[in-house]
Amino acid sequence: MDRISIIGGKHLNGSLPISGAKNAALPLMIASLLTPDRLTLKNVPNLADVNTLARILRNHGVDLAVDGKRAEPSPYLGETFHLTARDIVDTTAPYEMVSRMRASFWVLGPLLARCGEARVSMPGGCAIGTRPVDLHLMGLKALGAEIDIDGGNVVAKAPRGLRGTRIAFPKVSVGATHAALMAASLAKGDTVIENAAREPEIGDVAECLIKMGAKIEGVGSSTLQVQGTPRLEGAVHTVLPDRIETGTYAFAVAAAGGDVELRGARIGLLERAFAVLKQTGVTIAQTPHGVRVARNGGNLKPITIETQPFPGFPTDLQAQLMALMTRAEGTSVIRETIFENRFMHVQELARLGADIQLQGDTATVNGVKALRGAQVMATDLRASVSLVIAGLMAEGKTTINRVYHLDRGFERLEEKLSGCGAAIERLVSG
Ligand code: EPZ
């Protein structure tokens, strides 16, 4: 298994390209199931999760063609995918596929809306929590689906199609909002979705559905109104920049020190995270081509935050912020309110010399004078990159094992960081 080796202490300077958002590309690819016409997606990031989903969609009968890399307008722009679900030949998504990439469970809504039936494996839990799907099923039932659980699979039927309705989610869920929005787009009649997630990736998918002919009001708010239509068409859509990648590299610059322009980044996609970063003493500025992040000298001030659904502080940046705060001047308090087990990085950060106490859903981080490089283990996608951030600060060499977690969500990470001066390399094994 590949490993990543980092020699800490180098500042980061220059510029770094931000890729298309993984958590928009995945549902956008799934939206291709809603129409027999061609959906073209630009700026698709080259990630393991995207490639896994491509295989799953092909299994359903989606023709997927990828344009070769273009020199223009920038070699860093992502790939262009052409997805055509002319005929859906298989409405099942088996365990061996869904268990490899949880978001593939999200094919359930579109398959049901397009074909009137679907048999999709329950995704099961993962490192950060039990990850239930009850809210997904609640929304589809409200739209008239008959749902059974058989041998670990969700068996969904809607022989007479889905019917518009009112869905009031008791809890904000990104995936359940995607499922309800896509299914409602092809339902007969109007649907109101209340307490919908407001993450920018939901808005990006909604904008794409509207280009495909869906009638959606309230995009960006917590109440979405959808007027069902009998058919959706093809469209061309560009994936928005990845706000989690943006925040991750912003924290990396703050950790290593230096001055970097994150090209293609948009401040408006993660205002709360940037506000927290400013509180620690880091300079943030929108530029014509992205966002400039700088910390030259000066200590990091401690912070107290809790993760919240958008527009609050994103849970997907919690591990990265914690890594940064291990070197703050004082004590920080970080509360994780979204997932029940998203502190897997704490033990690994402690191996590098961090001083972190856990009490239930709250971590208390006492800043230390220095971290020291060591062998550490990646456990899940965002925890892995928190170890990279810590390695950039640590004295000496840090080696991170199981980097396949990183490859799921960060495109060309070593290339992007070494391009700004980091001493980082991938050790390919076997
Ligand atoms: C999406 O996961 C993201 N994944 C996650 O990013 C992200 O952490 C999460 O939203 C929160 O922002 C993708 O977009 C592919 P949720 P999702 O449904 O949709 C509970 C990453 O690192 N819940 O918003 O699965 C759930 O247990 C990944 O890129 C239910 O109770 O998250 C959690 O406590 C990790 N019942 C909370 O809601 C349900 O039916 C929020 O989960 C669904 C969720």
CATH topology value of the largest domain: UDP-n-acetylglucosamine1-carboxyvinyl-transferase, Chain
Helix content: 25-40%
Radius of gyration (CA) equals 22 Å
- The low-pLDDT segments are none
Number of domains: 2
Bound small molecules, by name, code or SMILES, are: ligand EPZ
Spatial sequence of strands, sheet with the most strands: 22-23-1-24
Structural class: alpha/beta
Number of H/I helices: 14
Would you identify the CATH H-level superfamily of the largest domain? Enolpyruvate transferase domain
Round the mean pLDDT to the nearest integer and report it: 95
Q: DSSP strand (E) fraction? A: 25-35%
Instruction: Note the gap between the termini.
Output: 7 Å
- DSSP E strands, number: 24
CATH class division of the largest domain: Alpha Beta
* CATH-derived architecture of the largest domain: Alpha-beta prism
Question: Which terms summarize this structure?
Answer:
430 residues, alpha/beta, UDP-n-acetylglucosamine1-carboxyvinyl-transferase, Chain, 2 domains, four-stranded mixed β-sheet, 24 strands, binds ligand EPZ
Question: What's this entry about, in short?
Answer:
This protein has 430 residues and is α/β, with parallel strands linked by helices. The protein has 14 helices and 24 strands.
Secondary structure layout:
Layout (H helix, E strand, L loop, with lengths): L2 E5 L4 E6 L4 H10 L6 E7 L3 H13 L2 E4 L12 E6 L7 E2 L1 H4 L9 H8 L1 E5 L12 H9 L3 E5 L2 E5 L8 E3 L5 H12 L4 E5 L5 H12 L3 E3 L5 E5 L7 E4 L4 H14 L1 E6 L7 H9 L3 E5 L2 E6 L8 E3 L11 H8 L5 E5 L9 H7 L3 E5 L2 E5 L8 E3 L3 H13 L3 E5 L2 H4 L5 H6 L4 E5 L3
Parallel strand pairs: 2-15, 3-14, 6-7, 10-11, 18-19, 22-23
Antiparallel strand pairs: 1-23, 1-24, 3-5, 4-5, 7-9, 8-9, 11-13, 12-13, 15-17, 16-17, 19-21, 20-21
Helix pairs in contact: 1-2, 1-7, 4-6, 5-6, 6-7, 8-10, 8-12, 10-12
Bound molecules: ligand EPZ.
